[in-house]
Design a protein that fits this description.
24% strand, 4 strands, globular, 112 residues, alpha+beta
Length: 112
């Protein structure tokens, strides 16, 4: 399934470098998003910057997407798919610090 991006979790805000644990405030913010958008179906997609190997980034992006999905499920959000794209779908250049930060994200897609 595909959908439109209806939310984005900035990885730098919610995750420490190379980690996928979400702290209490981050969990509360993510839960509030899903509660405000209840009744929709969601796909959670994790992304990374281009540092580290492709295999490592796929695992990290999957772990981050699953961490967000876990919060969503805790408030009964309807999660239809969770996937990690690693570094394969950048939205900015990986040649700058700012660009890499933009690429480290978890996207929340709303599916009709």
């Amino acid at each position: 399934p595909t959908g439109n991006i209806c939310g984005r979790v900035d990885s730098d805000q919610y995750f420490a470098t190379d980690k996928y644990y979400i702290g209490p405030q981050g969990r509360a913010n993510i839960a509030a998003f899903f509660q405000a958008n209840s009744g929709q179906r969601f796909i959670i997609v994790g992304h990374t910057d281009a540092r580290a190997s492709d295999a490592y980034n796929i695992t990290l992006s999957n772990n981050r997407a699953n961490a967000v999905a876990s919060v969503a499920r805790s408030v009964d959000a309807n999660i239809v798919e969770v996937r990690g794209m690693g570094e394969r779908q950048p939205i900015a250049t990986n040649a700058t610090v700012v660009g890499m930060a933009q690429n480290r994200r978890v996207e929340i897609l709303c599916v009709n």
